[in-house]
Amino acid sequence: MDQNPSAFVFHFDATYKTNKCGYPLFVCGISDVSRTFFPVAFFVSSQQTAPQYAMALTALQKVFEAVVGKDLTLQHFMGDADLAQYSAFGKHAQFLMCYFHVLQNVKKRMGTCPTASAAVHKYIYKMHFARSFGDLQSISAEAVMEWTRHPSLESFIPYFHSQWMASDMWRWQAYHTPPGMAVTNNPIESFNRIIKDSVTLRVRLSLGALINCMRLHDCCRFDDQMLSVTHHDHVFRPVVVQSNLFEKAV
Q1: 123, 132, 182, 215: which has the highest count of C-beta atoms within 10 A?
Q2: Both 104 and 93 in a single domain?
């Protein structure tokens, strides 16, 4: 992260089902122009609210300042439709909305008419690849004209405008993201799957075991290739056993 802030996108996500307490595991890191994800820090929190996000960011800033000797500067932050994330990070960097989460939420609000669904996806796709704000406005106007022809989209149109065009979550178009950078949270979500598949083995660990395993994450190579279960057993299994025994003893 000790580089030009415009050279990376900062990602922050909460993943569940990693520990017996049901607490969210906060994972943060950066992705570069090759869309490679580099994990930076992990936090275990009892809640997923703005104060917890802010505390995690403050802790990260303090560690960065202590190690690098200067303030942490973020220019682009990629998140999902979580107002708590925006409240904590929005003032520190330009908040970029994950395109995949836009599609997910839109799908939940659309009608069941196949023709209407095709019209919605067509224009959302065009809006995502708009080249400028002016281009976006033009495509948006075309979309409204087309969508009004479908009675099943009567309630969808005001929803889409208020949620994805006129709110703080409106920056999901590709022109907001530096060329080559990720336009979704896929880099960090893929990393979260690696944690569950190769660190916790889809088992909810005790907090002590989880923290110890995450401290050893640099012993392995986290990239697009999944870690082998054999490697996991060799490195992490003793840590899990020792942590569980310690918790039982106390």
Answers
A1: 182
A2: no
What would the 3-class secondary structure string for the chain be? Answer: CCCCHHHCEEEEEEECCCECCCCCEEEEEEECCCCCEEEEEEEECCCCCHHHHHHHHHHHHHHHHHHHCCCCCCCEEEECCCHHHHHHHCCCCEEEECHHHHHHHHHHHCCCCHHHHHHHHHHHHHHHCCCCHHHHHHHHHHHHHHHCCCHHHCCHHHHHHHHHCCCCCCCCCHHHCCCCCCCCCHHHHHHHHHHHHHCCCCCCECHHHHHHHHHCHHHCCCCCCCCCHHHHHHHCHHHHHHHHHHHHHC
Residues 93 and 105 in one domain: no
Find residue 94's DSSP bridge partners: 76
User: Residues 72, 195: one domain?
Assistant: yes
Same domain, 218 and 188: yes
Residues 205-228: pLDDT tens digits? 888 888 888 776 554 444 444 433
Q: 0.70 exceeded by the pTM?
A: yes
The model's pLDDT over 134-184, given as tens digits with 9 standing for 90+, comes to 999 999 999 999 999 999 999 999 999 999 999 888 999 999 988 888 888
**Sheet with 76-79: strands ordered across:** 37-44, 25-31, 9-15, 76-79, 94-97
Distance CA 89, CA 65 (A): 18
What CATH code is carried by the domain that includes residue 58? 3.30.420
Which parts of the chain sit beneath pLDDT 50? 219-236, 239-240, 243, 246, 250
